[in-house]
TrEMBL record:
Name of the featured protein: cysteine-S-conjugate beta-lyase
Highest classification ranks of the organism: Bacteria, Pseudomonadati, Campylobacterota, Epsilonproteobacteria, Campylobacterales
CDD domains: AAT_like (cd00609)
Family membership: Belongs to the class-II pyridoxal-phosphate-dependent aminotransferase family. MalY/PatB cystathionine beta-lyase subfamily.
Cofactors, names only: pyridoxal 5'-phosphate
Keyword vocabulary terms for this entry: Lyase, Pyridoxal phosphate
Natural source organism: Candidatus Sulfurimonas baltica
GO MF annotation list: cysteine-S-conjugate beta-lyase activity; pyridoxal phosphate binding
Record keyword Lyase present: yes
Domain of life: Bacteria
Length: 395
């Protein structure tokens, strides 16, 4: 079967936040939004059909997450990522960020230190600060080719007895890395030495481009499995974040009991009836769709890369291995972060995420979501090329 990504449904009359928040974020609605990490690509038909079938039953009361939904995810993880989880190790969560906040409370106390590796998805450091924990920043290093790597020596130099948790973003948002086994093993070695728990956000794990592969942190060895809280889900992969369902996997019984103390206090319950069937259908039926999607996304990325290559003195695209989020190095424009943001809004008519929102290390960068239909991506390319060409003439 061949899937069509040429067009996508109009979202302007829905409550899609990437559209409804344009005025608030960019001071105008005259921008094409390419910021928040959901796709302007239709959610797969097999997910929609599963939901339609459930709607035939007229009662929507409380329901547990069916074992079949978690089993579908377990089979997916085994087949796609060579890791096997047990049903009893899995918990429902409405979002990875919620799961992260529970982990912060469960495995640290007020005043403890928590490691984040910037630039990184903003809730990583916001969650730490909001829980009155101390942010221990271990910034990624950028090589001469633009690729980001861990700074292990910096990490070792900053850890002390109050360091309790590391928030790992794998694959990494926004820099698009899939961490290699040897890189993850270095992180593991440090965490084992200092008795640090790892919360591994692996929500983008299915969106990896060949020849790269995703290596779940818990799959490194039994010791890694014993210290890892794994957060995974179908929301990014199948553009179904609006169903608000993900899962948390904790194989260590002691850690799971610690986590459950906070989890039960918050009362996560079991989520939405419709989310359950959507989740199960995605994992049971999504392989072929996902493979075709990744080919499409790679084409979009290549188009973006081609535009940037024509203006290398102004903008460079960081090499991507995973996610559908391009990390644009705009430092060649010699603009302040405010002026850079204004350039994209006013000149390109595009609404991107400001790099600074991912930490101080994001200054001079912008994040662009290229998970778009062919039609919308063509518009983005035209707008960006026009703005860069215009700036080039007058610089």
């Amino acid at each position: 079967m061949s899937y069509d990504f040429s067009e996508s449904a109009c979202r302007k009359d829905t409550n899609a936040e990437k559209y409804t928040l344009r005025e608030k974020l960019f001071k105008t609605e005259d921008v094409q939004p390419v910021w928040v990490a959901d796709m302007d690509i239709n959610t797969p038909d097999f997910v929609i059909e599963a939901v339609k079938q459930r709607l035939n039953h007229p009662i929507f009361g409380y329901e547990d997450v069916p074992q079949s939904a978690f089993k579908a995810q377990i089979e997916w993880m085994k087949r796609e990522h060579s890791i096997e989880f047990l049903l009893e190790d899995m918990l429902y969560s409405h979002s990875v960020v919620a799961s992260m906040n529970v982990a912060i409370e469960a495995f640290s106390e007020i005043g403890d230190k928590i490691i984040v590796q910037t630039p990184v998805y903003p809730p990583f450091f916001h969650s730490v600060i909001e829980h009155d924990r101390e942010l221990l920043k271990n910034p990624l290093k950028q090589n001469s080719d633009g690729k980001y790597v861990f700074d292990i020596e910096d990490l070792k130099s900053k850890i002390d007895k109050k360091t309790k948790l590391l928030l790992l973003c794998s694959p990494h948002n926004p820099v698009g890395r899939t961490w290699r086994r040897e890189e993850l093993e270095e992180i593991l070695s440090v965490c084992l030495q200092h008795n640090i728990v790892v919360f591994s956000d692996e929500i983008h794990s299915d969106l990896v481009y060949k020849p790269n592969i995703h290596i779940p942190f818990a799959s490194l060895n039994d010791k890694a499995r014993d210290i890892t809280i794994t957060a995974i889900g179908a929301g990014k992969t199948f553009n179904m974040a609006g169903f608000a369902m993900s899962s948390v996997v904790i194989t260590n019984k002691k850690l799971r009991e610690q986590y459950l103390k906070i989890y039960k206090r918050v009362h996560f319950a079991q989520g939405s009836v419709l989310s359950h069937v959507a989740y199960e259908s995605a994992y049971k039926n999504g392989k072929e769709w996902l493979e075709e999607l990744k080919v499409h996304l790679q084409k979009n990325y290549n188009m973006l890369e081609a535009v940037c290559s024509r203006y290398p003195y102004m903008i460079k695209i960081v090499p991507i291995e995973a996610t559908y989020l391009a990390w644009l190095d705009c430092r060649g424009m010699n603009l302040s972060d405010k002026a850079l943001r204004n350039f994209f809004v006013k000149e390109a008519k595009l609404g991107l995420n400001a790099g600074l929102s991912f930490g101080r290390e994001g200054s001079g960068f912008m994040r662009l979501n290229f998970a778009l239909s062919c039609a919308k991506m063509s518009q983005v390319i035209d707008k960006l090329e026009y703005a860069l060409e215009k700036k080039g003439k007058y610089s």
